Amino acid sequence: MYSKELNERNPLRLFEHSIHGGLGPGNIGVVVARHGIGKTAFLVGIALDEAMRGRKTVHVSLDKTVDHMREFYDEIFMDLAHSAQLEDLASARLEMERNRMIHTYTGKSFTIPKLRHSINFLKEYAHFDAACVIVEGFDFDRATMEDMEAFQQLAVDFNVEMWMSAVTHRGAPNDHGIPAPLAKLDSAIAVIVQMTDESGGVHLSLLKDHNNPDVAKLTLALDPNTMLLVKK
């Protein structure tokens, strides 16, 4: 199978259809789950899909090293390639690496202005014009609406889709079904996806779809063996 055909058959196409065409530039999407459920795998899957469409992604991690993230990408890419019997593996891998940039911030050194500077530097001096920015490890427990508005403004200014991850907690969701810690911030978030560990794998549910009152039911899951997105 060629990369283009693999891209067209990717379950993310079904996900995009469920949220009326995708997240969209200038918007924030958040995947929320307990620790260890597969949030990173879901976000890496988005980045790999972007790469195979020739679109660039900046993947920012606040709690993992660059080497750890590269290993994660390599593992999921190889599982994807083998499951799809991808032809010309070397070229596809090179394309993936060219279209993905990993940044890490250690010791609580992350700030939104630093992220803005990094993205601008990549665009102006490295000619790496991102279409998607992924931010993992941001502490939503301490996040304010001002933080989310700053992230949203960054997404607008650079015309990127921004995906983030959040760790959910026990407790009742708000009136819109949004769990903590996102409940107080959901007005600044366009799309919210929840991952839950159920029998047969990790299941995905759509909690918010832009401003659409009727949220679609997702028929997607994360395979626990390959950590790839699959149709249920």
Keywords:
36% helix; globular; 9 strands; alpha/beta; 232 residues; 9-stranded mixed beta sheet
Largest sheet features = 9 strands, mixed
Rough shape?
A: globular
Radius of gyration: 17 Å
Order of helices and strands: HHEHEHHEHEHEEEEE
Sequence-ordered SSE layout with sheet pairings:
Elements: H1 3-9, H2 12-18, E1 28-33, H3 39-52, E2 57-61, H4 66-84, H5 89-98, E3 100-104, H6 112-125, E4 132-136, H7 145-157, E5 161-167, E6 191-198, E7 201-209, E8 220-222, E9 229-231
Quick gist of this model?
With 232 residues, this protein is an alpha/beta fold. 36% of the residues lie in helices and 22% in strands.
Describe this structure in words.
The protein has 232 residues and is of the alpha/beta class. It is 36% helix and 22% strand. The protein has seven helices and nine strands; from the N terminus they run H-H-E-H-E-H-H-E-H-E-H-E-E-E-E-E. It has helices at residues 3-9, 12-18, 39-52, 66-84, 89-98, 112-125, 145-157; strands at 28-33, 57-61, 100-104, 132-136, 161-167, 191-198, 201-209, 220-222, 229-231. A hairpin with a 2-residue loop joins strand 6 and strand 7. The chain is globular and about 50 Å long.
